[in-house]
Amino acid sequence: MGISQQKMINVLVIHHDELVNYINARFGNRNFAMEVVQETCLRLLSKKSDDFDHVTAPLPLLKRISMHLAIDLYRRDQLIGQYFDHTAELSDVVEEVELEKFTLPELCLAKYQYEKMLLQAIKALPTVCQDVFILTQLYHLTQVETAEQLGISRGMVARHLGRALQSLIPVLFEQDDQ
């Protein structure tokens, strides 16, 4: 008997740090490993639920999918690196052009207002969500380390982090419709 798509996602959430460490051990880049595990999750979500009917051991399958995906992404990055100069990122150029429209006092005020808005949004979170968000996002602790620090399970850390991010996404990625 197989396993449902939701169970596969649950296994990925439970073993998130293990998968990141597995990819990091091979490629030596934790950020790349986190990107690969996130892409693995997106791939799982895009599959039909009956694609997992014959899966009996989900963790080894997730490790295999992650490793193959990491190899593909690494090769793609190497190929792109041969043809493009990454020293001047497009986003940096766009930001410079956008920032030239404003004076330094205007930029300082905008930064202050954004920081104030972000701090207010973080303070509006429940206490445990605040703690989880700050430990994982600002202090870069893993979910396991955060769970140990707060004395809760890793699954609860994932839930609180999800809630915090859902609340903060409108502030973090505010888009002007003007």
Automatic annotation (TrEMBL):
Sequence ranges assigned to domain RNA polymerase sigma factor 70 region 4 type in this UniProt record: 117-168
Keyword Transcription regulation: yes
One function term, GO molecular function aspect: sigma factor activity
An example Gene Ontology biological process: DNA-templated transcription initiation
Keywords: Sigma factor, Transcription, Transcription regulation
A Pfam family annotated for this UniProt entry: Sigma70_r4_2
Gene3D superfamilies per UniProt: 1.10.1740.10, Winged helix-like DNA-binding domain superfamily/Winged helix DNA-binding domain
Entry keyword annotation includes Nuclease: no
Family: Belongs to the sigma-70 factor family. ECF subfamily.
Protein name: RNA polymerase sigma factor 70 region 4 type 2 domain-containing protein
Annotated source species: Acinetobacter populi
UniProt lineage: Bacteria, Pseudomonadati, Pseudomonadota, Gammaproteobacteria, Moraxellales
